[in-house]
Design a protein that fits this description.
Elements (H helix, E strand, L loop, with lengths): L1 H132 L1
Amino acid sequence: MDQLLRATDLEAKAKAQREHAEARFEDRKETVQDSNQRVERDQREREAKVEREKAERQQAVQQAARQKAEAARKADHVRKKAVEAQERQARATRIAAESEAMEHKRMAVEANGEVLDVDRTLNATKAARKQQKG
């Protein structure tokens, strides 16, 4: 009977140890699950942060590209305006030179006409004197 009592006592102790071990196992299991969940959450947060930073970098690159393109458009516009102004100035200078040349030609034609008038008058005077003498 002593053995039976002892066996029952050992069995009760073994059961208590098993229950205690199972409780510790469950605690550790919950701790591991909590830790795994925390690790997974941290990993998702890191991945989301990396994606946000990547998107921000892409946006910054796109913004810089847009700014460069806008600056290039503005520079091209300024260059075109400068070329147009130079062309207008050259055209105005050419027209002014042509006008001056035309004015000189007109003055030359007028002078030539005056010379012809003087020549005619001179020839007429010479002819009239010749007739008077003759």
